[in-house]
Amino acid sequence: MTPGPRTAHRRTTTPAVSFSAAAKAYGAVRAVDGVDLEIAGGETVALLGRNGAGKSTAIALLLGLCRPDTGTVQLFGGPPDQAVRAGRVGAMLQEARAVPRVTVGELVTFVAGRYPAPLPVLQALELAGIAHLTGRRVDRLSGGQTQRVRFAVALAGNPDLLVLDEPTAALDVEARHTFWESMRAYARRGSTVLFSTHYLEEAEAHADRILVVDRGRIVADGTGEELRRAAGGSRVSFDLHGRPTADLTLLPGVRAVDVRGDRAHLRTDDSDATVVALAELGAVRGLEVAPASLDDAFLALTTTAHARTGTETAR
Q1: What's the CATH number for 233-291?
Q2: Residue 116 backbone dihedrals phi, psi, to 5 degrees
Q3: Which CATH superfamily is domain 17-228 in?
Q4: Residue 295 and residue 310: Cα distance in Å, rounded?
Q5: pTM for this structure?
């Protein structure tokens, strides 16, 4: 009998994912730089960072695709490859290739058969939103359809931990919405989900926690609201109308200036002082003051593009 939700492996107090001082370098580049991390069973966690921040290497360590140079990585209290062999881990990676001359149903059935307690094939296909594609050849699908096949393959083993690397990268808006509905449905079964993304709104909307990664390190860990509070400050915006911008960084409280067209956006630690100074300059046309956004928090917590110039980046 195929096990129902979470009956194959009982939840324990042991973390689903544990990194302890884990580090991995490629030459002079420290792709993962002394990471300490625990993810509890049943959590949905987003891994957020720029290109080259180290997200892909962290996922490779987690899946046992490479080993840390120093420190340890464990899944459910043991080595990653042990959890993978036991069918407790499902992964949806960016670089998977379509299998020629094989139908969607054949592929998912084959993968499910490699696991000790797989999800029923039809259920995996339905969760991925591709039950209607069962008889279609995988190598004749669109990019979005292929991405959903990868999701069904990741679900096939009925995993306790689902790892998704940029899962919506090839999907349009409607397909992204459908995908996240499917992911939440699987997470509600009690499974642990870790996904990486470039989309800030996806991280906040679909994760219990957001891990911000920069230069191989976790620089923030919390909910979207907690990250905004950690970044601090407010955003003050106003119309420039030809006013020079060179002196805006000198205004009291201002930490960053972003000019878009004829409008300036100031990130400030003291919005009252900034607004008073702008009023003294007569720069109050279209004035708006708002709390820091998640974008502001992300920019505040990660290294700026200027700081990265001339440096090597992680993978």
Answers
A1: 3.30.70
A2: -75, -30
A3: P-loop containing nucleotide triphosphate hydrolases (3.40.50.300)
A4: 24
A5: 0.79
